[in-house]
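EI: anyone free to look at a 399-residue chain?
SC: sure, send it
EI:
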Amino acid sequence: MNFWTHKKLASIHNLHDVERLARRKLPRPIFGYIDHVAEDGRTQRANLSAFDEYLFLPKAFVNVSQIDLHTELYGKRYAVPFGIAPMGISALSTYQGDLVLARAAARRNLPMIMSGSSLVPMEEVAKVEGADWFQAYLPGTPEGIEALLARIQRAGFKKLVVTLDYPVPPNPDNFRRSGFTSPLEPSLRLAFDGLLRPGWLCNTFLRTLWNHGMPHFENNHAERGAPVISRQAARDFSGRRHFDWGYLDLVRRLWPDTLIVKGVLNPDDAVRAQQAGVDGIILSNHGARQLDCTISPLQVLPEIKRRVSDIPIMIDSGFRRGTDVIKALALGADFVFVGRPFNYAAAVAGQAGVEHVADLLQREIERNMALLGLTSLAQLDRSCLYQATAGEEPRSIAT
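SC: here you go
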């Protein structure tokens, strides 16, 4: 690790710090893409305030000299109860970003879900040890779905994560405000934004052009997609309005390995997904990126866990602290995925930054478990929490 990377890592004390540093490092449109929330940000505020509804009830004078954070999920023993959520175009955050995230995840023994909106071919990422999670946006036809799933399987992925709640793209007004389009449209302003970040321009964008040519959306379909910068080409976002549960049934028939669905918030949808034969559910509003005024996944977690108890229920959206992860696990989540902070960390300090942020979150969880008087994740349940409702005294939510 060189001096400058060490210096950057020394200034990152928690997951909030990397956002501040990434804002300085990334061009305005790229940071705007990662930071994007839908419309007026009410969903983002709901995600954050949901954690404030729960307070801890710690136990004192417990021997916490040994704390075990290992988590079993789909037959693999991970070092921690969290992983890296799928994030599109991360190869514009740092050079070969998808590989950076996958290699960091392998080093820290945690799962990384590769995004279907990624710029590195899935076949390259699948070569990284443990990189066997892939998130897909389904093409609009059965033939396209079958071709994409066949490619994912050939690449070697064993865990397919299908995003359900994407019939149309989100409102683009905040994207436009930051100068982001998909693909990016070449302009003087885009060039100026790049020149304002010479480190990113040389070490990420020009390095990519020199070694690999113009990045393309590589993995939305069985074939290569549009270039990431183009005035003529357009990404195909059409063809999903007609989707219904029959398409998930089709995927279940076609996919022979572990099938997980992402983007579930309604308990009835969770039950229907289980009936379709999925092997797991990720509760998510995608970090508030798509529909504004949406409920937080944490708020629906207890009811979904009550109704769907025999497959893993995972969760993402808004997790920034070890206390956030612990609260979700206490409410019944089997695993937590974290997105933006890992993307920001990659932008700031590459693979070392991602590993550093994973270490910070792991240490927060371990420290807070000790302060709670708990030594294993199996001891986390609703008896650890009090629920704080505005204007009322906190109340136990133990079952």
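EI: The first helix runs from residue 3 to 10.
SC: 👍
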